[in-house]
Amino acid sequence: MTKLFEFLSDFSLLGMGIPEIVMVCLSLLLAYLAIYKKYEPLLLLPLAFGMMIANVPLAGLSSYDEGGLIYYLYKGIELGIYPPMIFLCIGTMTDFGPLIASPKSAFIGIGGQLGIFVATVGAFYLSRIIPGLDPFTIKEAASVGIIGSSDGPTSIYTASVLAPHLLPVITIAAYSYMALVPLIQPPIMRALTTKKERVVEMPPTRDVSKRKKIFFAFGLTLATLILVPEAGTLIAMLMLGNIIKESGVTERYIRTLQNHLLNVLTLLIGISIGATATAERILNFNTLIIIILGLTAFAFGTIGGILIAKLLNKLTGGKVNPLIGNSGVSAMPMAARVSQTMGQTYNPNNYLLMHAMGPIVASTIGSAVVAGIFIRIFGF
After folding, report:
1. Is residue 321 within 8 Å of 202, Cβ to Cβ?
2. Which of 100, 159, 286, 311 could covalently link to 143 via disulfide, CB atoms 3.0 to 4.6 Å apart?
3. Which residue stretches of the chain have pLDDT < 50?
């Protein structure tokens, strides 16, 4: 009988309280959304699994249980390895041609950073106003604000440096809103644009030579390393990936980076961050505030991009369709698809996809630079 009691006392389920059971149920819900609703399944499915195993305390499979498999996988996040490697892969799938062909589209990408600053300020001050909420430090507020970049790897990289304990919530929020782009952005786009603006036709983007794209990648890398070295890791990896793509001499690298390595990295990020989502770190009022602020950041990023696009429409005499302003956020390529779909809804002759890609890649660069600035200022 004594041996039976000892066995039962070691059984993992006995180490679970109500909070852990709630987290396991939440992980199963996320798995359902990934499998049956196809919400960012490549990331959400391993993240949900990691969350589940982390909340069986005696199993020792959270990212904080020293010596376990997940503990060592999480080192790729902790040491800042996985996000830059994701940027390397993304670089091989990115075309900077639309941005080079239309440099003014960079202003839309800059406008899309509005959400980052709104959410950062909101997190810092609201947490001091709302009763019962633990005040966010400036590092935590900046990490929450970066959700507004709509760029998962940038959000992960920034949070891993400034506020690692917020990683699971920030990651879930960032990727959830990216998946919900087709639902969140269209109402904002309709509210901020007129019928006349929505039907504006934009001429096809001009072709840009590979030589110019390669020069652009080298030049931007050097400029970032000199001016904002804290953003250098992300930008350098993004540009290296693009140089590999545009060089035309490294097909084997391209195939590996675009497919196998990207998929493996996404899996490792998902399970290792999911395994940080233990009950004591997630089940609190601050988590709800982060989710709300993340949505606010995404909405204001969309608003900022559209307002700049409307300004460009005025300055160019009506040659810029403000519907591409939603692509001021870095949700690539979902935001550009929304621009295209909305454009053709109001004018079947509208082809806005490539015009929208310019602001998106500008926003990807811009959000990485903002992240670097935040790390420089607040990462003391």
Report:
1. yes
2. 159
3. 4-5, 7-9, 11-12
